[in-house]
Specification:
Length: about 850
């Protein structure tokens, strides 16, 4: 503001700080942030998130156990309110929120969380369902015997103590840990930039590995893994992953799969059910069932009709009732694939070693525990030795007093004060002050001969004990023997059998193929003249009586329905084109559609040329080397090709048959045949030829085939099929919807190339023969028309007639419409 001028409107006096720093120290913000963040990170790592390798506990766990032990809330005492325990812990040792302490205490009491529980809880401490524990004012607790084993000898200077947060109490840096808690109960935690996830193990197995390591310090990890083959989860389950376990135990990191234990049972109604009795570790049952129910409702998992939880206090039992047509193994694989009935479990053996986080292998963890126990045994022995020597020193003084009891009494009676008596005794008998005090405090009853004898006996025992304790301190093998012995006692008293099953199957072999998740159901495939393909369940079409009109099943009226084929979901669909190429894809890869939907264009799945269309669809379950393709062209050419030769066709296609350039020929039918089958070829005008394939040699993929049947006039081939025994019939359907069955016995086997004999009488009323199929009495036929009508009917409703008959009406055709194709469904042994 200019001098001599008043303050303007809104202006105020500038306020200066009343105190000024004596010295300003410039600091690089990068350095300050790094320093502060590292301090925070180490605080989290050491003081909160990671367990100590020696006792396997984090500070909060250790403080809870120590506080309860100090107040004698042990196994042999009455239960104490959890609120009282939480108050004791946060008031004296752990100045954090009560919920953090109580949640930790709850987990230590849950038998489904810890392999060996450390808190004996009374009341609601939660469940495997995911239910929370009751508030701490409602529950009670005390230490378990296993927790007391962790605390045993803590009063013998076996571990170091620190001041608590306000310096009023002392708390242990680590517990003596008479058993390897880190591996047995495991631990998990997320620190800054690192995490630990140590799974629980079986006490008996871990102790067995420790005993082996004690006996042979140079033992390999491979040998230790024979003792500790895998984790042992309190909820059981099946552990899978040999490579993951090997990696975890040798490098400190690995991954395994945990799979629920499930069995397939048949109920009283003859339906199959999946029974789950064990679920993976840390999976909440209620969440699991809710997820499965959602997947069932959304039809991502099919085949389950009902879900029931029949679990009770005797154990877990989850029941998945299956539908009649469902395949239990496939449904179970779907459950493993899409739900927490199978989980990945990552293992990270990270723990604090001398207050530093270290990634450890199995042997290192065991070695660190043994080092800790050796130190505990040494410190306990030194403590016991000191106490024994102190007691021996007193007993030596008492012995001297007993040897000179009269003189001792005389000295004491003469002394005016206790101090004079003490000094006189020390001077006369060369005693220490401690010994003199013990003599002065000795009761007169000790002067009896019996009591005197007890003192001498005790002195001898103490001298013997001192010798033993000194021998222990001088001998490494004796110390290790004590460790081994004490571990054996704990195991014998508290050891339990393994809960988790270890599978010898490697995790990679469990990578489920898509087909493991698919029901092998009956399907109907259709292709329109425009090239649109779709897949529909067989049950889409209900059975009708012969002569019905069928149901409409087409996308657009202007796109005629050309092909229909029955197959199963896991079959290979073979598509034969006008160029003589064959393509294949799995049936389930064809998009499922409703009967009113148009479907997807086939060129989205197969690499068909611009003017190339599909003329035949067939299906096989595999590309067996003992099977053959028998292909028939419109002009009567046939070709026998080994099925295995097209196994590499896939969606790109391979050549199956060459056509002569001078003739516009194409495939009209294909059959899957054995080497010496009888086959039946049929023309549109009604001529048929039965011949045997025994003398017909298979050809290469580039061959053009040989003459199969001689045609007359404008006739052309309409189809072929395999003659399958005495119980099969020839079924023919004509353009106008007429059809009949004929016994194959009416046709003698002839040589190929002939004109054949009549099998059907083609008239203006019936139209020409569209397709033939071999059928049995229990078969069903599905007939489609160009307009998209589909009729499903029983074959036995179609009359059995002679060779020259015209048949009966199979489907009622409207004016201008024609039969396009037919396919046959034969239960159990379907002809494809």
């Amino acid at each position: 503001m200019a001098k001599g001028k008043g303050k303007g409107k809104g202006e105020q006096d500038e306020k200066l700080p009343t105190t000024v720093a004596k010295e300003i120290i410039p600091v690089e913000i990068e350095d300050q942030m790094k320093k502060s963040y590292l301090a925070y990170a180490m605080s989290v790592i050491v003081g909160r998130a990671l367990p100590d390798v020696r006792d396997g506990l984090k500070p909060v766990h250790r403080r809870i156990l120590h506080a309860m032990n100090e107040r004698a809330w042990r196994q042999d005492r009455a239960y104490v309110k959890s609120a009282k325990i939480v108050g004791e812990v946060i008031g004296n040792y752990h100045p954090h929120g009560d919920s953090a302490v109580y949640d930790t205490m709850v987990r230590m009491a849950q038998p489904f969380s810890l392999r060996q529980v450390l808190i004996d809880g009374q009341g609601n401490f939660g469940s495997v369902d995911g239910d929370p524990a009751a508030a701490y004012r409602y529950t009670e607790a005390r230490l378990t015997g296993m927790a007391e084993e962790l605390l045993r000898d803590i009063d013998k200077e076996t571990v170091n103590f620190n001041d608590n947060f306000d310096g009023t109490r002392r708390e242990p840096q680590v517990l003596p840990a008479a058993w390897p808690n880190l591996l047995v109960n495991g631990s998990s935690g997320i620190a800054v930039g690192m995490a630990t996830k140590i799974p629980p193990h079986n006490l008996k197995e871990v102790v067995s590995a420790l005993e082996l390591l004690i006996d042979n310090p140079d033992v390999s990890i491979k040998e230790l893994m024979k003792k500790v083959p895998a984790p042992d989860f309190p909820t059981g389950g099946i552990i899978i992953g040999k490579d993951g376990l090997k990696s975890a135990y040798t490098t400190g990191r690995g991954s395994i799969k945990i799979r629920a234990v499930a069995n397939i049972e048949e109920n009283s109604r003859g339906r199959e059910a999946i029974i789950v009795t064990e679920i993976p570790y840390e999976v909440r049952k209620n969440d699991l069932l809710a997820r499965i129910a959602d997947l069932v409702n959304s039809k991502k998992i099919e085949g389950i009709s009902e879900i029931r939880d029949e679990s009770d206090r005797t154990g877990m039992r989850i029941v998945f009732e299956l539908r009649k047509e469902a395949q239990a193994n496939i449904v179970l694989n779907q459950l493993y694939q899409h739900t927490a009935l199978q989980i990945n479990y990552g293992i990270i053996f990270l723990a604090l070693v001398n207050q530093e986080p270290k990634l450890l292998n199995l042997k290192q963890m065991l070695q660190h525990y043994l080092t800790h126990r050796r130190e505990v045994i040494e410190r306990r022995t030194k403590y016991d030795l000191r106490k024994a020597e102190e007691r021996a020193h007193i007993l030596e003084g008492l012995k001297i007093a007993l040897d000179f009891i009269d003189e001792v009494i005389k000295i004491i009676r003469k002394s005016e004060t206790v101090d004079i008596a003490r000094s006189s005794l020390m001077k006369r008998f060369k005693l220490s002050e401690i010994q003199s005090n013990a003599i002065l405090e000795m009761r007169l009853q000790k002067l009896t001969s019996l009591e005197s004898k007890k003192i001498l006996e005790e002195l001898n025992e103490i001298k013997k004990l001192i010798g033993e304790l000194k021998a222990i301190l001088k001998s490494e093998s004796k110390m290790l023997g004590i460790i081994k012995s004490e571990l054996g006692v704990v195991t014998q008293k508290h050891g339990i059998d393994r809960a988790s099953e270890v599978s010898l199957v490697d995790a990679d072999s469990l990578k489920m193929d898509t087909e493991d998740l698919i029901q092998n159901e009956n399907e109907v495939i259709t292709i329109s003249e425009g090239g649109y393909i779709r897949r529909m369940p067989l049950d889409t079409f209900k059975r009708q009586h012969r002569g019905g009109k069928g149901v409409i099943s087409g996308g657009k009226k202007e796109d005629a329905l050309k092909h229909v084929h029955f197959c199963q979901s896991l079959d290979y669909l073979l598509f034969f084109s006008t160029r003589g190429k064959v393509f294949y894809m799995k049936a389930y890869e064809v998009p499922e559609a409703t009967k009113d939907a148009r479907g997807k264009h086939i060129k989205g799945f197969l690499s068909l040329g611009a003017d190339e269309v599909v003329t035949v669809i067939r299906s096989v379950t595999d590309f067996s080397e003992k099977k053959y393709l028998l292909m028939l062209t419109r002009l009567g050419i046939i070709k026998k090709l080994e099925l295995s030769q097209i196994s590499n066709a896939k969606k790109g296609g391979v050549m199956a048959m060459q056509f002569k350039a001078s003739e516009k020929d194409y495939l009209v039918d294909v059959a899957i045949v054995d080497d010496k089958d009888d086959i039946f070829m049929a023309t549109a005008e009604g001529a048929g030829l039965r011949t045997n394939l025994g003398k017909m040699r298979p050809q290469g993929r580039a061959a053009s085939g040989i003459i199969g049947m001689t045609l007359e006039g404008q006739d052309y081939m309409s189809g072929l099929d395999v003659v399958r025994g005495n119980k099969s019939f020839l079924l023919v359907v004509s353009e106008s919807g007429y059809g009949k069955r004929v016994k194959y016995d009416e046709f003698g086997s002839k040589g190929r190339g002939g004109k054949g004999m009549a099998f059907f009488k083609s008239t203006d009323k019936t139209g020409k023969a569209v397709a033939i199929r071999t059928v049995t009495e229990d078969a069903e036929v599905i007939v489609t028309t160009l307009s998209g009508m589909v009729l499903r009917s029983e074959v036995k409703q179609i009359a059995l007639q002679g060779r020259t008959a015209s048949g009966v009406r199979v489907v009622d055709i409207t004016a201008g419409d024609k039969v396009a194709d037919m396919t046959v469904y034969i239960p159990e042994t379907t002809t494809k």
